[in-house]
Amino acid sequence: MARCAYCKANETELSENGSPICLSCAELNHDRGGGVRSVLAKALSEAKLRADSAFAEFSAIMSDIPSNMPHPDGVQRIHNAAAKLTVARHKLIEAHTRLRHYLERGIVPEDLQA
Fold first, then answer.
1. For residue 100, what pLDDT is reported?
2. Are residues 46 and 13 in the same domain?
3. pLDDT digits (tens, 9 = 90+) for 20-62
4. Which contacts of 75-78 are long-range, i.e. CB under 8 A and separated by 24 or more positions?
């Protein structure tokens, strides 16, 4: 592990633009003015909430079986909820990957580059 290029006190595996940086210095440098890290962390948090909501909806539909709905409508409800859950989980994985790539490799997503 390398020492932080900013504080020189902490050893870290995190790097930013090729320079080692500890988590404390990364937070200080990027959280001012809505830094990249805070934007990515917020996106991850929002994606997690959407995935949790989609899972709760899917679980509610599945626990309602057998319902009094006619067969085709009930099946379509399950398909719709499953599709929504799949999309939410893919968005969660994407948000997690973007944050991980930033924290581990210092890769700033193209849509956040200034």
1. 92
2. no
3. 777 667 666 554 445 888 889 889 999 999 999 999 999 998 8
4. none
Give, as one character, the DSSP assignment of residue 16.
E
Contact yes or no for 12/2 (Cβ under 8 A) = yes
What gap in Å lies between CA 15 and CA 13, rounded to an integer? 6
Angstrom CA distances, 40 to 47, 49, 60, 70, 101, stand at: 10, 14, 30, 43, 10
- Domain annotation covers residue 12: yes
pLDDT number for residue 70: 61
Question: So what's the pLDDT on residue 88?
Answer: 97
User: Any bridge partners for residue 19, and if so which?
Assistant: 16
pTM of the model: 0.66
The one-letter amino acid code at 60 reads A
109: left (phi over 0), alpha (psi -120 to 50) or beta: beta
Number of structural domains (the chain) is 2
Range of the domain at 13: 1-32
Q: How far apart are CA 32 and CA 35, in angstroms?
A: 6
